[in-house]
Amino acid sequence: QLQASGGGLVQPGGSLRLSCAASGNIVRVNTMGWYRQAPGKQRELVATVTGHGSTNYADSVPGRFTISRDNAKNEAYLQMNGLIPEDTAVYYCNADILVAVSSAIAEENNYWGQGTQVTVSS
To answer: Which of 73-77, 87-91, 101-105 bottoms out in mean pLDDT, i.e. has the lowest?
Structure first.
């Protein structure tokens, strides 16, 4: 249901743009977000964006990262600038999606993407 892409190897100070695409029997995609998990650490929130465009960021990234979405495409993006080695992690897309389970019934479920590796190193 969620496909993340855009990770890679970048030098400190560089930029990357992650993309997350939702697919399936979608009625509506509600809050979308990005989380990350560094080696040996717990998964942590990076940023979220609601269906109305309200955003929330972790204390470690405001001003460097920007989350956005395209509701027509059911996609979310994370523009990452000024990357530092501490940003190295697997980045996961997450979304609350209202899916049609029949012609008359829809239910909201939470989904995770498969993760995309971001490595910041010289």
So the answer is: 101-105
Tell me which residue of 68, 33, 37 sits closest to 48, measured CA to CA.
33
Burial (0-12, 13-18, 19+ Cβ within 10 Å), 34: buried
Nearest to 13 by CA among 86, 82, 85: 82
The DSSP result for 41-55, as a single string, is S--EEEEEE-TT--E
63, pLDDT greater than 90:
no
Alpha carbons within 13 A on the beta-carbon side of 94: 17
74-to-15, 55, 90, 95, 115 alpha-carbon distances in Å: 23, 16, 22, 10, 18
